[in-house]
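Input record (one chain):
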Amino acid sequence: MKTVFWRTLVILFIILAIIGAILPGMPTTVFLILAAWASSKGWPQMDAWLLNHPKYGPTLKNWRENGTVPRKAKWLASIMMLISGIAMLFTNAPLLVKIFTNSIMLIVAVWLWLRPETKKQVSLASKTLNDADILIDLTKQILYLKKNRKQYFISSGKNGIGEAENSGKTPTGWHCIAQKIGDDAVVNSVFVGRVATGEVYSEHLDANQPNRDWILTRILWLKGLEQGVNLGEGVDTFSRYIYIHGTPEKNLMGQPLSHGCIRMHNSALIEVFDAVDENALVYLSKDALDLANLS
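The corresponding structure, as predicted from the sequence alone:
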């Protein structure tokens, strides 16, 4: 039922975006942003199509990464919708169409103005390892959670360390947690495209799909912060869909076996997930870290 709800919203917003492309004053990009937001909740195939659209994809990816709307864009969209709404009143359109269209534009305008306008940029110039909320030592296959001063074994990319797109490697350097996903999911919930499928992992399910890359329980979606290193075209951690995520207990920790993400056993992942907020700083190191001497 939830999937039907989100997919219905996606279709509605895409229809409104098409109308916006035809009708002067109606926004197009704003409705596509809403369509991408709804598709991320329950339609991964449509989500991927929107994010890879040749014309609107870059804008939608930027929105997904930053979640901000410039004030100038808010004013422009609001003025255009106001003009369109007034003009609609003087058309021969049925009364219900006028009410529906203007109501939708009002809701969108309110939603726009509730979006953050800027996001404080993280300055890395003066950052040290002590500033990281999470440290990941890819040499030792250890995740260190500063808040709890606790270490957990992980499993990183089987193909090694690297930032290149489609490499299957685990990136390095400064990152932040862009999104936390699955905070209300039961342990062993299965995710595909960051959407819970309704399945719960079991040995029986695994036996029927032995080659499936299981993403379970929680997702911490990482975003690179170093332009040209792990941020930007060809090396972008966020666009590569690199997560810290849960994995079946049978999967070994302490060895690089993943497809590029950071795997953790579920109980350990939940501890980390609950201890950090979105935008928490994460540092992935290709060199061995002296965790004992961190403050």
